[in-house]
From TrEMBL, chain A:
<feature type="transmembrane region" description="Helical">
    <location>
        <begin position="96"/>
        <end position="118"/>
    </location>
</feature>
<comment type="similarity">
    <text>Belongs to the binding-protein-dependent transport system permease family. HisMQ subfamily.</text>
</comment>
<dbReference type="InterPro" id="IPR010065">
    <property type="entry name" value="AA_ABC_transptr_permease_3TM"/>
</dbReference>
<keyword id="KW-0812">Transmembrane</keyword>
<keyword id="KW-1003">Cell membrane</keyword>
<keyword id="KW-0813">Transport</keyword>
<feature type="transmembrane region" description="Helical">
    <location>
        <begin position="225"/>
        <end position="247"/>
    </location>
</feature>
<keyword id="KW-0472">Membrane</keyword>
<feature type="transmembrane region" description="Helical">
    <location>
        <begin position="138"/>
        <end position="157"/>
    </location>
</feature>
From TrEMBL, chain B:
<keyword id="KW-0813">Transport</keyword>
<feature type="signal peptide">
    <location>
        <begin position="1"/>
        <end position="21"/>
    </location>
</feature>
<comment type="similarity">
    <text>Belongs to the bacterial solute-binding protein 3 family.</text>
</comment>
<feature type="domain" description="Solute-binding protein family 3/N-terminal">
    <location>
        <begin position="32"/>
        <end position="261"/>
    </location>
</feature>
<dbReference type="InterPro" id="IPR001638">
    <property type="entry name" value="Solute-binding_3/MltF_N"/>
</dbReference>
<dbReference type="Pfam" id="PF00497">
    <property type="entry name" value="SBP_bac_3"/>
</dbReference>
<dbReference type="InterPro" id="IPR018313">
    <property type="entry name" value="SBP_3_CS"/>
</dbReference>
<keyword id="KW-0732">Signal</keyword>
<dbReference type="InterPro" id="IPR051455">
    <property type="entry name" value="Bact_solute-bind_prot3"/>
</dbReference>
Length: 407, 338
């Protein structure tokens, strides 16, 4: 007969909450939680009391009121009779526009500069070093203001394009760089343009099909087929043919200087200097960071990989494209996400050049005219949060696709 | 449980401390007046070469400090942009906003501000280069217009072009310095703001004569100091400090003769009431007897302040116009000190 040795059970004592490692962790967490809840409650209560003291309430109804102000550059139709909500939407789209343009351009610049900085050519390598160091180490705001000042001070005013004695002329006769923006031609969709779009989409599809066929063929037989030229031909020829056969359905509206009144270009589209300044400065600044990320990613791929590729007879270009970059991407993509997020949030520096982004419409004029600081700032924060989360989510999906498959 | 009760008590205690005291007490306890001013509008508020703030609105800040604190120099000038000014006032960052702000219905009611007085009757105009060849604002169809964001002028502009059925393109700018730079670079064809502001900006150009202020005045812009809604005692002090300046001009009290007039009761009972040699008007406002004497000593009466900062002898060269005393055909009319 054995008697199980019961450990002596002692009653729970409060001091165990601090002295006993079994309970200590729990105690700390409960105290921290209480402190946090107390802090949040304090802030919330403080807010309510102070809002009441100021005689203000918390209400999003102002979004439905007439805005009453005009916006220079809009992607959707907007007049000063529209609501504050519509003005906020215009601002949102403007923010997204400059963020998208900036991200794409920054990636192109960054990848080029990053690869070229590793070039064996002394001059190219040093030039890229100068670019990266110059842009990385000067505040973004200064670049935005500088580009904007150059754009508006170094370009002629519209009046100089007018009349017989015009001192300025349009580039190629169609583009006018002026102190008030860049006027470019804009396509006008005419009769049969839908058919042309269908043809274009079909030829893109055909080009993709050709690429995958060529790849399968090479896998099977080892013989490469020309991809680039054939794909280009598939892309361009049918579209051009359709364009001519349909009787040129797409025409271009070229900006022209009007004869009377204040000198001004009619037709085409005016890309404001503020947009260009913001776009360029953001792209060049973020591009410098991306260049460093790309360089780091490439250097992270072991030298044996490229030596092995060379030993197999791959040329340097293909080695980079088929061997190095796919492996480097695994190192590049995670920090790249942060750069995209930074760029998107940095678009709010638009305020420096008067570009009508969301901060300037909802967080600027609307907030000022309605006095709804808290509501506007909350909405503004929510917008940037959502956009950042979407970008980060999409990039994480991409990251999972290119990540090393572990089976 | 006990912890949370204690936290709750702490929170309540903190709140009681944070509850707003009267602005006058705050100012007295601090020893300086926080005055929100324009970051740079020559004639209204701008630092001079030695860094001292000068201008029409600055002199009002000095007068208020002289009334409330006894020393016109005890002012902390806080430059505020058109967009940030009302938020700064509502948040208590400044005690009074003397930043050529227009008194409007929605600012008075919805924004919870009070405009105790109007110190400059203004209207919105347009500044255009002579080379533009425009004689009237109605010829501005298709113009690119520089405009300060967060101002009433932004809304007036939209209304004016809508009513006249002409189009324009706005170029938003943050302050007068940026507006000047953009306008001179040709980024906009015309610059619009209050006519006084246009005169002030034009005075800083190298060749002011190449630019004209178009004849149309498209709005009413009663500019004045603003305070937070709800503190009527403080609003009274700001209001009557300003009216003391106007009344002083009306009664012929100047910076030069105020000390002499306040030394002994004069024949005119209103002068005596204003300068504290008769009755106790200062204590009624929560101030001392000598407050109005110091207000006038700080920078002279309303007319002196106007002439020194904006008048025809300055580079800005504005006529009194609507801002003359009511006895001289203007709108400046102080309620009686009685």
């Amino acid at each position: 007969m054995t008697i199980a040795a019961e450990p002596p059970r002692r009653a729970f004592r409060p001091s165990q909450l601090i002295n006993d490692s079994r309970y200590r962790g729990l105690t700390i967490q409960v105290v921290a939680l209480l402190l946090l809840a107390g802090l949040i409650a304090y802030l919330g209560h403080n807010l309510v009391v102070n809002l009441r003291a100021l005689g203000k309430d918390f209400d999003f109804g102002f979004l439905g009121n007439r805005a009453g102000y005009d916006i220079g550059q809009t992607l959707i139709s907007y007049t000063n009779n529209d609501t504050h909500a519509r003005a906020a939407l215009v601002g949102m789209l403007n923010t997204l526009l400059v963020a998208a343009l900036g991200c794409v351009t920054a990636t192109v610049i960054g990848v080029l500069a990053g690869v070229l900085r590793l070039s064996k050519n002394w001059l190219i390598g040093r030039l890229m070093t100068v670019y990266v160091e110059l842009f990385r180490n000067v505040p973004l705001l200064l670049w935005i203001v500088l580009v904007h000042a150059v754009l508006s001070n170094a370009t002629p005013i519209p009046a100089e394009f007018r009349g017989e004695g015009a001192t300025a002329s349009m580039v190629f006769g169609v583009i006018a760089f002026t102190a008030q923006g860049t006027f470019i031609p804009w396509p006008v969709w005419g009769e049969g343009a839908e058919l042309l779009t269908v043809v274009l989409l079909l030829s893109i599809l055909a080009a993709l099909v050709w690429r995958s066929y060529a790849r399968r063929r090479q896998m099977a037989t080892g013989r490469p087929l020309p991809v680039l030229w054939v794909a280009l031909a598939i892309l361009v020829l049918p579209t051009v043919l359709a364009f001519l056969l349909l009787g040129r359905p797409v025409t271009f509206d070229v900006p022209t200087m009007r004869e009377t009144g204040i000198a001004r270009f009619n037709g085409g589209v005016n890309i404001l200097n503020s947009l260009v300044a913001l776009w360029f400065a953001l792209a060049l600044y973020t591009g410098a960071f991306i260049a460093e990320i790309v360089r780091g990613g490439i250097l992270a791929v072991s030298r044996g990989q490229s030596e092995a590729a060379f030993a197999l007879g791959l040329r340097p270009g293909r080695t980079m494209r088929l061997v190095i970059l796919p492996q480097a991407l695994r190192v590049i993509v995670p920090p790249l996400i942060s750069q995209y997020l930074n760029l998107t949030k940095n678009t709010s520096l638009a305020v420096a050049v008067g570009y009508a982004d969301l901060r300037a419409t909802l967080g600027g004029v609307t907030m000022n005219q309605t006095g709804r600081e808290l509501e506007s700032i909350l909405l503004l924060g929510l917008f940037y949060l959502v956009v950042s989360l979407v970008i980060s989510g999409a990039m994480n999906v991409y990251n999972r696709r290119i990540a090393l498959k572990e089976r | 449980m006990k912890t949370s009760v204690m936290l709750g008590t702490l929170a309540l205690a903190g709140l009681a401390g944070a509850a707003q005291a009267a602005t006058l007490d705050d100012v007295k306890a601090r020893g300086t007046l926080n005055c929100g001013v324009n970051p740079g509008l020559t004639g209204f508020a701008a630092p001079d070469a030695s860094g001292t703030w000068q201008g029409f609105d600055v002199d009002l800040c000095r007068a208020i400090a002289a009334a409330a604190l006894g020393d016109p120099a005890k002012v902390n000038y806080i430059p505020l942009s058109g967009e940030t000014r009302f938020t700064a006032l509502a948040a208590g960052e400044v005690d009074v906003l003397a930043r050529n702000s227009t008194w409007t219905f929605s600012r008075d009611t919805d924004l919870k501000l009070d405009f105790p007085a109007v110190n400059y009757y203004d209207g919105q105009g347009f500044l255009a280069p002579r080379a533009l060849g425009v004689a009237s604002a109605k010829e501005l169809d298709g113009a690119t217009v520089c405009i300060q964001t967060g101002t009433t002028t932004e809304l007036n502009l939209a209304d004016f072009f809508r009513v006249n059925n002409i189009t324009y393109e706005p170029v938003p700018i943050a302050n007068d310095a940026e507006g000047r730079q953009q306008y001179l670079a040709g980024a906009c064809d015309v610059y619009t703001t209050d006519a006084s502001g246009l005169a002030s900006v034009r005075a800083t150009f190298e060749t002011p004569d190449d630019h004209v202020i178009l004849p149309e005045i498209i709005s009413k812009e009663p500019l004045g100091p603003a305070v937070r809604h709800g503190d009527t005692e403080w609003a009274d002090i700001v209001r009557w400090t300003f009216y003391a300046l106007v009344t002083a001009e009306e009664l012929g009290i100047t910076a030069a003769n105020v000390a002499e007039m306040a030394a002994a009761p004069t024949e005119n009972p209103e002068i005596n009431r204003l300068l504290g040699t008769e009755d106790e008007y200062g204590t009624m406002a929560g101030l001392d007897q000598q407050w109005a004497v110091r207000v006038v000593q700080a920078g002279g009466n309303y007319g002196e302040i106007f002439e020194r900062n904006l008048g025809e002898s300055t580079s800005i060269g504005l006529a009194r116009g609507l801002n003359a005393l009511w006895t001289q055909g203007g709108l400046m009319y102080a309620p009686p000190f009685r």
